[in-house]
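Lab notebook, bench 4. The sequencing result for the construct came back, and we need a structural model before the next group meeting so we can plan mutations. Quick request posted to the team channel:

Model the 3D structure of this chain.
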Amino acid sequence: TMVEALGALLRVTLSHKETISTIGSELEIVRNYMSIIQVRYDDRIEFRDEVPTALYEQALPQLTLQPLVENAVKHGLSTRSKGGKILVRSWKDKQRLWISVADTGEGMESEKLEAIKRALTEGDEQGTGIGVGNIYRRIHTMYRDGEMFLYSRRGCGTVVQLVFTPEHYKEENSESGK
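Done. Here's the predicted structure in token form:
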């Protein structure tokens, strides 16, 4: 199971040459990643998604969800002896698409959370990590109304929410439009 999941994960990540994917494709990457993680952590980390299949074809920047889920595992859940849960949700509110990645992990102190938010707005990947900084930059670059919200509380977990209007895709500013 683990080898099959790794093979599928590698196939998808190595074969994608586009900068735009779909929520369905991104969820498939996350499911393969979580298959590996669940073996590694003896099923201590539970993964669930609540994404309506009607949203599976919605466009999303490639490799958006997996780095957020990986951060939840690495920074929130891996050190907890009881493990925890990761929930990926998506919904539409009028024309805006919301995507949420939440974990029941360690969370962080408010000072650290504010430092990460500040580093995101300043473009400081040293203060955010490459994955989150890259996602933040792509959401803001690719969508006129793209936003990222971060919430966290020590001992309770972390939530990352992305919100944008898919129709506000700025092709002229995207990586594929350069």
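The two ends are 40 Å apart (CA to CA).
Will bring this to the meeting.
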